[in-house]
Amino acid sequence: MLPPGWRSFRGCPVPGRCTTASMPQLLATTSFRRPLVALLLVLGGCTQVPTLELVAPPPLEAVRGQQTPWTIEVRRGGGLSEPIEVSLLDLPTGVSASPVTIAADETQATLVLEAGVSAVPASAVAVRLELHASAVAQSSSAQLTVRDPGGAADHSFNATGIVASEGLVPGLMRACAVAGDAQGQSVTLNILHGDYLLEKRDAQGHLLASFGNRGQVHVGRGTDYGISECGLALLSDGSILVGGTFREPGDDYDAFVARYTADGSLDTTFGVEGFAVPSRSVGYLAFGFVSALQVDTARHIYIAATGGWVTRVVRLTANGTLDATFGTQGVATFEGADGTSIRGLPRLALAPDGSVLVASSRQPRVDPSPEWYLDLRRYTWNGRLDVGFGFNGGVTVEGSAISSGMAARVDALAVRPDGRIVVGELVWGDNSYKTCVVQYRADGTPDPAFGISGRQVLPTVGVYQYDSVLGLYPSADGKLTVANTAYNGLEPRFAVLRLISDGRPDPSFNGGRVFDVVTPLLPGAANDWQINPGGSALLPDGRLLMQADRGGGDGDRGLVLARVWL
Hints:
- The protein is mostly beta strands.
- A hairpin with a 5-residue loop joins strand 29 and strand 30.
């Protein structure tokens, strides 16, 4: 006897031996849930249950004023060969997508999303994807991002793409570092009145009341007004790493790392009551100024700290203790090559193979000249200088980027997915400022396929002069996005340019031109002309955060944070 709600088709009782041809009718009319039906049919001796599985699709986005293709892929099973209708439903106002059909025995089809100029930029918009064949159907949710074209301000961020201080802050306030997460939240680390200040904002740019004290946390590790470098990282669990410099009365500058939970509480399980001070574990007096912080996939923490003529690369374990498997007691130490001293704090980058790249600017100690040198070196995963790298037993040392008599300051460092290395430099002399990107092969030798002999001088627009490289962001397709701060004598601004693999501007990004974001004149500012870099961060969805501080000659300053589409 059949269970309630069941009947046979074409002489096929259940339980019994069914044919594939009877399955569509059975699946279409039963009142039971399909997974249970499939299980009972198999137990009853039926075979070839049609199945349909959606392969993880690429990110779903609609670009305002454009048509955006979105290709989906399915896996067929149980003899399913018929066409499959694909529909995208619950789309927001201004966005449309016509249904498409995956042809019989095919596994892919491409939907085209069209977003009009009336579409409102937003992230994580819930939509519904429907797959339907006569034998089986599937419905799943997806997250849609509605965005502006690359090279445009993100108007979902504070309506203008920019968050700025309500006015200048008395005393010296310096922008320092910024990071962001997959939800669009941002964290900034800055210096105010000799202390580090953490701020966390939601995806719309508003301070998060649930973080610390109304969106702010004072680190409480005293520094002074001359410090302008630090390090910041957001971990996958939402916790925050802060790398900075402090000085207690009568002592030298020293490095610290602190960890905070996602709500801004100091994580006292890290280091000693939330703080790690590496120098105290090895008996050194002080490590100096922290200029970079990186975290690898195993959650090892790397910082670069410089004091006197010496630079130290330090590796900590995830709990804040020195990692004795790196260098000497967790520290790799070096001085400038060929009797040079540091002029510009080092930058760090982690290579895909686990090695550590360090780039800094150096100048001869004896008979100082205006010419600076690039010092680029690589350490193995265990903190030993990689003697097979570069020209000089693990070190690449080159003259300044343009010509003798000019200075080149290293501002940014990154490693491409294939191991090639890119360095961002600010070069000045002869009353001019220029940004250069220098590319090296994985062995530390200049890459002749990039720019001219491995070096590309970036174009300027009008009379703009580039003040600093905020960050370098290589992508898997060989392109490179360069973020800068810029000043043309009138308006401080952010500037973004994308390069193709050989170093030329990418015509698909803002027509190959520099994309500028003019920073606003802060309220109460009469002489607000300076702009100092405060870091940048690439969000997982491709948006770029850039931060700077603005002010004039009187020392009062305010912060500017911008978010743009790439």
